[in-house]
């Protein structure tokens, strides 16, 4: 599951809700990974601009979301807010590398790419599921 760079944020949000995921890769027509959109990217758009001055938080935007603002945000394209610098792994990456990247860089989603093309995505819960399987003996541990 991925979206094109020109996909509207309204459509991205609908897809994320329908698929119950917190992040969606953005790919070109050939499947090359261009970036990643996460729930955090939506939060950045929806939160007012906060500036810290002399230990006081100043808000430079409206505190409430108005319908006009929501419509404006919904029309923004995926390419406009996606994170372009994305950590990735190859399909044969060892689990230690996956866990290391997720922990060190505090990422929740790790796209799996082969020759620049997206072939999958690993979420933090995938690692938890694997750990659970090891603990119940369904799979052999590392």
Architecture per CATH nomenclature, i.e. the level-2 architecture of the largest domain: Roll
The CATH H-level superfamily of the largest domain is CBS-domain
- The SSE string, one letter per element, is HEEHEEHHHEEH
Q: Can you identify the CATH class of the largest domain?
A: Alpha Beta
Number of strands: 6
Mean pLDDT: 84
For the record, the count of structural domains works out to 2
Largest sheet: 2 strands, antiparallel
Any overview of this molecule?
By secondary structure, the chain is of the alpha+beta class. The protein folds into two domains: 85 residues, CBS-domain; 56 residues, Roll (CBS-domain). Helix content is 39%, strand content 23%. It has six helices and six strands; from the N terminus they run αββαββαααββα. The strands form three sheets. A two-stranded antiparallel sheet has the order 1-2. A two-stranded antiparallel ribbon has the order 3-4. β1 and β2 form a beta hairpin. The longest helix has 13 residues.
Task: Give a quick precis of the structure.
The chain contains six helices and six strands, in the order αββαββαααββα. It is of the alpha+beta class.
Tag the structure with descriptive keywords:
two-stranded antiparallel sheet, 2 domains, 6 helices, CBS-domain, alpha+beta, globular
Topology overview:
Blueprint lengths: L8 H11 L3 E5 L5 E6 H8 L3 E4 L2 E4 L7 H8 L3 H4 L13 H11 L3 E6 L2 E7 H13 L6
Antiparallel strand pairs: 1-2, 3-4, 5-6
